[in-house]
Design a protein that fits this description.
Largest sheet: 10 strands, mixed
Order of helices and strands: HHEEEHEEEEHEHEEEEEE
Number of strands: 14
Shape: elongated
Structural class: alpha+beta
Helix content: 25-40%
Number of helices: 5
Radius of gyration: 22 Å
Length: 235
């Protein structure tokens, strides 16, 4: 009788443990939820951020972003009167989920400066806007083939509070964030919209065909590091 009771207790513990392990995976796997569910969750997180941290903001919108397979990549959260966050869905490793990792990772990135890739020219004019090599040695070394968008005085334009989608005026279009792995193993991102069977790179404002691996400095990109939903982004 005592042996049966012991076996029953062990069985209950194992069933409870299995149920816990399954629930951890189900609760924290973004692939098990609809786009509408994710929008509601990100909306709540953005509301919490406004109430606790971004108290100068009066509102926001949550816009979906897609990858090259038309799957949900994440969201761009546009705060009012200005500022934005890039949020990525992330299916973390199981044990990371057990430690409380969120499905939503917010991107940390610098202010937007648009540029084109050119291996021969030092300056071009497109639609009345000059794109040229930077006089900053550090920037020129980091981006050896870059022609930067400049203003009427020849200074590189920096967009502090607007996303690439807002700057390009494509907020009404289906928006993409394309993950591009370089041959050196690192990954960057291209904010984009569709143009037929190609994409429009919203950093270079040039059309291109997507591929999973690019040569270094082949495409203009954003450098984004994603962390748990917290204080990141440009506000």
């Amino acid at each position: 009788m005592k042996k049966k009771i012991t076996i029953s207790i062990i069985s209950i513990i194992l069933i409870a443990l299995l149920a816990f392990l399954i629930s951890v995976e189900c609760i924290n796997n973004p692939n098990l939820y609809s786009e509408e569910y994710h929008i509601k969750k990100v909306t709540r997180l953005a509301e919490k951020k406004i109430n606790t941290t971004l108290t100068s903001k009066t509102g926001f919108t949550v816009e979906p972003l897609y990858d090259n397979s038309e799957k949900l990549f994440g969201f761009v959260v546009n705060y009012e009167p200005y500022g934005y966050s890039i949020v990525a869905l992330h299916n973390h490793f199981y044990f990371t989920k057990m430690l409380g990792a969120s499905m939503y990772d917010e991107g940390a990135f610098s202010s937007l400066q648009r540029y084109k890739i050119s291996n021969s020219q030092t300056s071009i004019v497109v639609n009345g806007v000059e794109w040229k090599v930077s006089s900053d040695k550090n920037l020129a070394e980091q981006y050896p083939n870059a022609l930067w968008e400049t203003d009427n005085e020849g200074n590189i334009i920096t967009y502090e509070k607007e996303s690439a989608y807002q700057v390009a005026g494509v907020m009404s279009e289906r928006k993409y964030m394309l993950n591009t792995q370089k041959n050196n193993g690192s990954s960057d991102y291209i904010p984009a919209v569709k143009r037929g069977d190609k994409y429009l790179n919203l950093i270079s404002m040039e059309e291109f065909e997507y591929k999973e691996t690019f040569e270094p400095n082949e495409q203009a990109v954003m450098h984004i590091s994603f962390y748990g939903f917290k204080l990141a982004g440009n506000y």
